[in-house]
Predict the structure.
Amino acid sequence: MVARASNPDQGVSCAAAAPDVERLREAVLAFVRSFGLLAGDRTPCGKPIPISYAHALLFLLEAGRRDELPTQQRLGGALRIDKSNVARLCAKMERAGHIVRRRSPEDGRARLLALTARGRRLAEQVDGASRERFSRLLGATPAPLRASLSASLEALATAASTLDPEVPE
């Protein structure tokens, strides 16, 4: 049985693109494994926290740099995790002293998030370690491929976001 693209305007059938699909699939799987994205208890840059926790820290660090207080819902949307998982993640981060949550004055149902001083220090450590890891990764990539590599990953991320545009509930 051959799988076909559900919308013919979105590209060729899976059968016609099978070699390209398989090459992309294998490349992504190899990258995920070799970069360390499957380790549930540490980040690829070696920090002893789950990847979702690290991404939440980085999201909140960037928001803080813009003087923003994002909601828990916005964090879930950015990380593409459902509201029960983002609630558990935020509760864990709050218990660890890395964030504070407070009710929004505009909408009492919404929770505003901010890093604590301790959380900011950890987020900055994760940010620095991540930048170092990506610097080493880029340095190990052939120079002629570097620009196209970033452009290709940006296009892939955009395409992936269109597959399931809604954040799970």
